């Protein structure tokens, strides 16, 4: 007799935000451990971590697998408890495969994401960062979407693991719930925090102002171009360029 398929929460999508990335810093010759490979220039940490102010991911993530460059011993690193991170040393940048496994209640396949391990600063501020040997942070905001989650997992997602499963801290901050039109619970970004509805609104305002500035600059350059074209036409007219011979 086949086991019955778990019942799903029809018509409901729940998403959970998280951050993945890396931080790297040059090794200090004065404090460098003698056991580190002589060719290695940086220490770095790869991670999957929660978005502030939510302190926990373990109520829906069971483990995280980091696939490092094949030159590393035991290049497949599996972290089964938070913090979900790996720290190593090295000299080169490379692509890292990150595979996120969800708790058994989820009944969901693992999610795979890719991250480029960044050791060196880039951009207009790169020289200053190199001189001060500041950490190089490269991270991304990501959301995992659970469409019609099974009911047991839906309970975990909407209570932050405090619904009797024993996983997660179950703090109030880990509950991202709101009431929809039919009374269902859905996940939303928190109102406050670095990755939040409020910050998203601020970013949209900044983008709106940037668009206005660019539009103004385009109009100004277009006006200058028209003036130059008129001036060129006048000069040609004075020199008789383009005037038919009588």
Characterize the structure shown.
- With 246 residues, the protein is of the alpha+beta class.
- Helices cover 24% and strands 29% of the residues.
- It contains 3 helices and 10 strands.
- The strands form 3 sheets. The chain has a 4-stranded antiparallel sheet. It has a 4-stranded antiparallel sheet with strand order 4-3-6-7, with no helix packed on it.
- The longest helix is centred in the last third of the chain and has 42 residues, at 197-238.
- It starts with 12 loop residues before the first strand and ends in an 8-residue tail after the last helix.
- 22% of the residues are buried.
What is this entry, summarized?
This protein is an alpha+beta fold and 246 residues long. The protein has helices at residues 126-132, 151-159, 197-238, and strands spanning 13-26, 42-50, 61-67, 76-79, 84-90, 95-102, 111-116, 136-147, 178-179, 185-186.
């Amino acid at each position: 007799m086949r086991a019955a398929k778990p019942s799903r929460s029809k018509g409901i999508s729940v998403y959970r935000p998280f951050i993945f990335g890396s931080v790297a810093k040059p090794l200090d010759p004065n404090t460098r451990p003698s056991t580190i490979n002589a060719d290695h220039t940086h220490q770095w940490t790869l991670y999957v971590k929660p978005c502030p102010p939510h302190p926990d991911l373990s109520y829906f993530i069971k483990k995280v697998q980091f696939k490092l460059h094949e030159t590393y011993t035991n290049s497949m690193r599996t972290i089964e408890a938070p913090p979900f991170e790996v720290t190593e040393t090295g000299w080169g940048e490379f692509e890292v495969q990150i595979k996120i496994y969800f708790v058994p209640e989820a009944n969901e396949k693992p999610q795979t994401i890719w991250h480029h391990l960044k050791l060196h600063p880039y951009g207009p501020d790169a020289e200053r960062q190199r001189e001060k040997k500041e950490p190089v942070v490269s991270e991304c905001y990501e959301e995992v979407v659970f469409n019609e989650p099974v009911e047991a997992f839906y309970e975990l997602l909407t209570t932050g693991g405090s619904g009797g499963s024993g996983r997660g801290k179950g703090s109030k901050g880990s509950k991202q719930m709101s009431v929809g039109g039919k009374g269902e619970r859905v996940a939303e970004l928190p109102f406050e925090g670095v990755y939040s509805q409020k910050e998203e609104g601020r970013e949209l305002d900044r983008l709106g102002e940037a668009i206005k500035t660019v539009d103004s600059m385009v109009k100004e350059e277009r006006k200058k171009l028209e003036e130059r074209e008129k001036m060129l036409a006048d000069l040609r007219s004075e020199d008789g360029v383009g005037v038919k011979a009588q």
